[in-house]
Amino acid sequence: MTPRAEAESLAGFLPGVLLEARRLSAAAPGVHGRRRAGPGEAFWQFRDHRPEDGARLVDWRRSARGERLYVREREKEAAQSALFWIDPAPGFHWKSDGPWPTKARRALALSLAAGILFSRGGERIGALGMPPRAGARAVERLALDLSLHSAAHPPAPPARSAVIFASDFYAPPEEWRERLRAAAGVAATGVLLMIADPAEEDFPYRGRTQFEEPGGGAMKTLFGRAEAAQAEYAGRLAAHRAAIRTTAQAAGFVPILHRTDRSAGPALSLLMAALEERR
Fold first, then answer.
1. Which of 21, 40, 52, 64 is deepest in the core (most CB within 10 A)?
2. Cα gap 115→109, rounded to integer Å
């Protein structure tokens, strides 16, 4: 696809995904990434005065209402970075027959919705490997960067960033072990957003069925009775997922599994809760 054709395709595609992301974020609980005391202008909370605080820190107006001394704490203003990566592999852009979106489309909607929530909380957001941004246009820039600049092999994240990797995670666990070990080495943490098509979960195939590699690859497999492979397929999938989960947890990342035939709202809530806990 030429750059112009790609731009025209994105011009028709992105507004719909952005609208979906805004609807998701509007229905989700808010996020605030800086909820701790520190230098800043915004009031956070009152706390009891401690002997080491001295008289200078006493909030006399609040203290005059009762018999205890209080200190006014401000909220630390130190925006963090939330970075996103969406798997560009052809298999992640595949979907089975049904009204649900591709895995990549759902990943983009969830990532942008999370980006909206983080941006509202004062965080910088960006595609992994691109400079994170803050402000009113940060989400639109994130949408473009995720659509145009997702590398097949995600680069190492910056130190202490929150990273959301969105993929079906069918690559060997060893690949992810090395990537997540590098992230943990710079104190980055985050989420593995594992997105699956319902056909990949349920294996609904029966009779003579030919399976072809997505993206026009050469690999093809013909089954005379596809249903005979269902049990073995389910066992291998479960073992692979268990290995990915173990790898994620060892590096301080939270694995979240989401099916594209399910509502995206609960997945967004789980994603935000996991990131808030890690931060």
1. 21
2. 10
Give the Å distances, CA to CA, from 233 to 25, 94, 200, 252.
Answer: 36, 19, 9, 29
Q: What is the pLDDT of residues 191-221, one digit of tens each?
A: 999 999 999 999 999 999 998 888 777 788 8
Contacts 24+ apart (CB under 8 A), 236-242: 237/200, 237/201, 240/170, 240/173, 241/169, 241/194
Least Cα distance to 244 among 183, 179, 188, 182 occurs for 179
DSSP assignment string, 90-124: GGGG---SSSSPPHHHHHHHHHHHHHHHHHHTT-E
Question: Domains in the chain and their CATH numbers?
Answer: 3-32+79-278 (3.40.50), 43-74 (no CATH)
- CA 218 – CA 272 distance, rounded (Å): 39
Total-model pTM: 0.79
Rounded-to-10 torsion of CA 132, 137, 140, 145: -30
Residue 18 neighbours by CB distance under 10 Å: 19
CA 15 to chain centre: 20
Q: How many Cβ atoms from other residues are within 10 Å of residue 111's Cβ? A: 26
Segment 45-90, tens digit of pLDDT: 778 888 888 888 888 888 888 888 888 876 544 457 999 999 999 9
Q: How many residues does the chain have?
A: 279
In order of 31, 87, 91, 117, 123, the CA distances from 120 in angstroms are: 8, 26, 33, 5, 7
